[in-house]
Amino acid sequence: MSVIKVAILGFGTVGQGVYKTIQSHGEELTAVLGKKVEVAAVLIKNNQKEREISEEVLVTTNFGEILDLPQLDIVVEAIVDKEPTFTFLKKAIKHGCHIITANKEMFAHHGKELIELADENHVSIGFEATVAGGIPVIQTLRELLKINRVDQVQGILNGTSNFILTEMRVKKQSFAQSLLQAQLNGYAEADPTNDVEGYDAFYKTMILSRISFGEEPNWHAVEREGITSITSELIAAAEKFGLRFKHVASLTKAGNQIKASVKPVLVGQEHPFYHVEGVENAVNVHSDIVGRITLQGPGAGMFPTASAVIEDLVYVCQSHPAKRSYTGTPGGNIGQKNEDKKEYWLVQGLTKKYAAPSITWIDQAANEIFIIQTTRKEVDQLAIQQGGLVYYPILGEYETLLKDTALTALL
């Protein structure tokens, strides 16, 4: 029986998960591919550390030794940072290897170039693990885009931020306490900036834009806001209205224009993200035929991410063209921006009456914390006039949970 030879670059959590899954699910892979899958090499950083790797596998710190193997079919990249991973993958493609990556930052920056290079060299690229761990969102979008026109994608794409927001609400903890718990659990790095400031979700959003629409928005025009401004007081106030904070990435396309954001929002019980808790991820896709579908599952971890990599291994072995895997279809009109559309907002920091006719006062949860209805333009203007104001949009339709308590007495 012929064999598919695989090299794994990096042997941390993801790399180990891929290695173990290839060993444990060898029969299933053979049944699907008609060939046995074998790990031929593993690239490591520290050759003094003991690892549970078969003696038959080349374990090396030198990527050149891997490319010198007599047979190499697939390179799985599970490292971090843009370099040297980008260089490694370019060399692997030119060597005639299919590649699979779990590196969202590198792929967000260099995915287009890798796709074009892979197309020139007649190999395929798998990148399911770059976006939402074990959730098959890339594969789902590929299937939808055969006929459907996707015009909106929203997602909770970072498990660390979602865990922190959940801990703050459930355990009545501060942001600092919840972040420390995330670090103790291994969900957050010592420097959590990428997660809590939205950079990780931003990179994933750009990858989703490329697969959904075939292009990205201007990176500098994307609204990116982290969760560090969310306090226990705000979370408690939101709970009084039946709302929960979620850190949501959003993509919409109207005509030729793509709008993107990564920011905290509020959702009610009817929203599909309301019950997405802890380190879970979720992606909600809207297309013109099927309507809305939501995928939810583990966004990180050894075996959820390994699952995405293994599915990509099957995908690339079935000779899918690289260029076709990274181009979307024209969007519809759901994302068409109406500057005069009124939305609901949770705002904090109102210190005086603001009686503009375009603002409707809905409820008050605590001192200086209100729900209002107005346009985005008006709330931006309000923030300029009311120094220190913070405000968060409420996704979907909001219905006050309190009985008819209009704020006439407060105005």
TrEMBL record:
Annotated Homoserine dehydrogenase catalytic domain residues: 136-314
Pathway as given in its UniProt record: Amino-acid biosynthesis; L-threonine biosynthesis; L-threonine from L-aspartate: step 3/5; Amino-acid biosynthesis; L-methionine biosynthesis via de novo pathway; L-homoserine from L-aspartate: step 3/3
EC class of the enzyme, as a word: oxidoreductase
Pfam families: Homoserine_dh, NAD_binding_3
Catalytic activity: L-homoserine + NADP(+) = L-aspartate 4-semialdehyde + NADPH + H(+)
EC number: 1.1.1.3
UniProt keyword Lipid biosynthesis, yes or no: no
Top-level lineage group: Bacteria
Keyword Iron part of the UniProt annotation: no
InterPro entries cross-referenced by the UniProt entry: Asp/hSer_DH_NAD-bd (IPR005106), HDH_cat (IPR001342), HDH_CS (IPR019811), NAD(P)-bd_dom_sf (IPR036291)
Alphabetic keyword roster: Amino-acid biosynthesis, Methionine biosynthesis, NADP, Oxidoreductase, Threonine biosynthesis
PANTHER family: HOMOSERINE DEHYDROGENASE (PTHR43331:SF1)
Protein family according to the UniProt entry: Belongs to the homoserine dehydrogenase family.
NCBIfam families cross-referenced by the UniProt entry: PRK06349.1
Full protein name: Homoserine dehydrogenase
